[in-house]
What we know:
The radius of gyration is 19 Å and the shape is globular. The chain has eight helices and eleven strands. It is α+β, with helices and mostly antiparallel strands. Helix content is about 20%, strand content about 20%.
Amino acid sequence: xxxxxxxxxxxxxxxxxxxxxxxxxxxxxxxxxxxxxxxxxxxxxxxxxxxxxxxxxxxxxxxxxxxxxxxxxxxxxxxxxxxxxxxxxxxxxxxxxxxxxxxxxxxxxxxxxxxxxxxxxxxxxxxxxxxxxxxxxxxxxxxxxxxxxxxxxxxxxxxxxxxxxxxxxxxxxxxxxxxxxxxxxxxxxxxxxxxxxxxxxxxxxxxxxxxxxxxxxxxxxxxxxxxxxxxxxxxxxxxxxxxxxxxxxxxxxxxxxxxxxxxxxxxxxxxxxxxxxxxxxx
Length: 282
């Protein structure tokens, strides 16, 4: 656990929530009943207005137009209640011991997935959101004397129940400590394990918040009979050192038009901070 001391990161002393420790050791936790039924109803209604009034962003050109409709980005700019919800004290008290009390939201996307037989979005296969932040070759264990560092945490804030039939997010506990990404030949294998631990389905009720470390192996599990679809506000919280990806670098950057014109190659554009959407911003 960490804190800021005179601008630097230091080891955090004192008690921390059990959910913070679960995030550190297992890579995930679920906070129950963070939002009241009235709060859920108000937030859901406001999110529905955004879907009705804001056109879908084309951030992933490989998605079919119908599936692009599942997503709305930059939600704290588009919904006052989304902005208030991602600042909920219950969420912050759990993530700040791991990210620091100066952590910030690096992405804020809403997901409204209707029942669908198959999805193109890559979230339906085993993946990590970024990293691994401390990559290691196979066979080199992590030194247990050192708490595994956490750089970013995702939150799914549910405005609709999500049972096993609706394809909740599944995680493989402890896999964030592997220093590796999921094996390419098993990306669709729901029986995938890490050090003997298999998938845990983060089923949720409206008002719950599922939290997971960016490095943990996770995916949307297959939906089944009785699929009700999914509807949640997603926020990714990152250490102060991580850049925000709320808007793409094409829209928001530090580069003058003249400097952009002088960048003669894709590598020169990336060097100036002009990146294609990926992970959090895609």
